[in-house]
Design a protein that fits this description.
Length: 253
Amino acid sequence: MEAYLYCRITIDGKEARFGMKKDIDPKLWNIKQGKATGKSAESSSINVLLGKTKAGIHEIYRGIQERENAVSAEKVKNVFLGIDSKQYMLLKLFDEQIAGKFDLIGKRIVNSTYNRYYYLRIRLSEFLIEKYHLADIPLREINYQFIRNFEMYLLTARGNKQSTIALYLTIIKKILELAYKNEFIFRNPFINYKIENEKSERGYLTQIEVEVLMNLKLNKTLERTRDVFIFCCFTGLSYIDVFNLTGEKIRYK
């Protein structure tokens, strides 16, 4: 007859328990070591589960300890199980970020920055449906493997270049770091994840090419665009800086 596995958390003499949804043959259990004995598939599976559970609980404990003065066994258990805590979702958080970015267009960001967030949100939604059959996913369920799977999805299913993939992953990393700082999650899944990027040589215009562009005859719309570009070339200002430039900000000597 098999026995049901339980996890016991003890902090300051107080305990909290929860079932691990796993049965074990009592003959395989080593009471002293607190794990299954032998090298059978069942023992290995149980010990892997125990190891992941222990690591997760320790990580949650450290996270709560860093943010709060009081840590209890019950609180650690609830965070681990997702009980009595608000369920923060990935795409919902993206929607909030996208809405905020939209309000910043022309003020602090350009339209292309907003578009990156917008299209990344679409890719994430497609990925969740195709890979996990989900409309959204809780932030606490995002781990190293999830990020890796998404990277491979972009590379194989979407045919994106590594530079685009790196850009998308960097955005996700920023959003998850924000979630971590806001205590929506107690670990950052990007801690041990290295974002690979391709080195690319950026082209530039020669003095002669700039002069040709300056003397080129264009219609009024393109002429203004050209003039702004040339102005950026000679001043070193970015597009968004020129966009926000007003007469009051110009000093004449």
